[in-house]
Design goal:
CATH class of the largest domain: Alpha Beta
CATH architecture of the largest domain: 3-Layer(aba) Sandwich
Distance between the termini: 38 Å
Number of helices: 16
Radius of gyration: 24 Å
CATH superfamily of the largest domain: Mur-like, catalytic domain
Structural class: alpha/beta
Amino acid sequence: MIKRTLNRIAKMIGIENTIEGAEDIVVHGVTIDSRKIKAGHLFVPFIGEKVDGHQFVEDAIKKGAAASFWQKDVPNPPKHLPLLYVEDPLKSIQQLAKSYRDELAVKVVGITGSNGKTSTKDITTNLLSLKFKVQKTEGNYNNHLGLPLTVLNLKEDTDIAVLEMGMSGKGEIDLLTKLAEPDVVVITNIGESHLLDLGSREGIAEAKLEIINGLKPAGRIVYFGDEPLLAEKITNLKHLDKKTFGMMEKNDLFPVKIHQKENGSSFQLNRKETIFDLPILGNHNILNALAGMLVADYFGISYEDMNEGLKTLKLTNMRMEMLKGQNGVQIINDAYNASPTSMKAAINVLESLPGFKNKVLVLGDMLELGPDEAVYHEEIGKSISKDKINYVFTYGNLGQCIAKGAKSMLPEKQVAFFSEKKGLIEALKNIVDDETVVLVKASRGMKLEEVVKALQ
């Protein structure tokens, strides 16, 4: 993490340090949460809709914080405390992260996309860790505030940082990539997430492509080559080292001889004889692995060695996480997020999964899809195969649309909509046993992990 004197931090963010006698105080790390203060932290207060963080500054320093930012137009700053006066705490923390990144010798991998960012981040980190000291974005710290905090948490001897870059609108990834200055960037895919804000898949593609704006001149762009919206725009960028992955044979890297198993999959690569074992489910995760492999290749890791990195892989929780429940039921917890693309991929995983007589889908609302959200949900229901799925249970306002679509494909008695989780959980418990697998998926706001916990 960042370790700098207050005087140095003032210079890094472009202000005058007015703390007399405290210039040499050393800051050890940065936090925005006064409840998580550790000795030496720099506390950064923000003015929220309900709470003003400035009211916690004195308490933060009592708990051990070395100093704090103070927004200049906030009245009554405590004069006896070590404060750095800034115009805008957010812009100052972003500038501090940019300055710190510029002082480090670290290489950076930036990852964006509509789906699969976190899984690709986890896979890439595992592969690079075979030879390098690697840090990655933790949790969902992937936005205009989370990414600067991630950068400020980097150790000075870290070789490679794998940074996830999220967004909700245009210009956001441009800011993140210019702050991080990545050596390699990855675009996992273009889906339907953020249609509410960006209006079209074309708009989403343009926003994701902003990640190239911060790419270093000799850097590499790794992208999903099966997506025409990406290929069309990136092909014309002659100066870039471009590598593609996908299912189609036109890509630099594509899988062959895919074999799905109960707890993962195996595959070969084009022009490679090695059989790769991936301990996570789904063809979409094979694609995420290919993206990570092209990044590892850039850093000189052989494909033969990569197999070891894949075998020990563990994804962030609630992403195709296979769990054991009561009565021996198997649960696939994919409740962290959802879009039409990722929902269809998850359904395909369940449909193709061997070894189970009873397959149950528990699906909830997909959020931020814009004015056509009902249509997208009904199409999900219509995509379900009656020959491969035994039950479809849905939850949420838009879950009714999934159920409507599913009833056009499956017998009505095998489809049920629930307005409350309690009824959903009771119905599930009545049909599950040791020959059952249940897939749970919805957008984060639906909190379907509560269903998972109930089954456990």
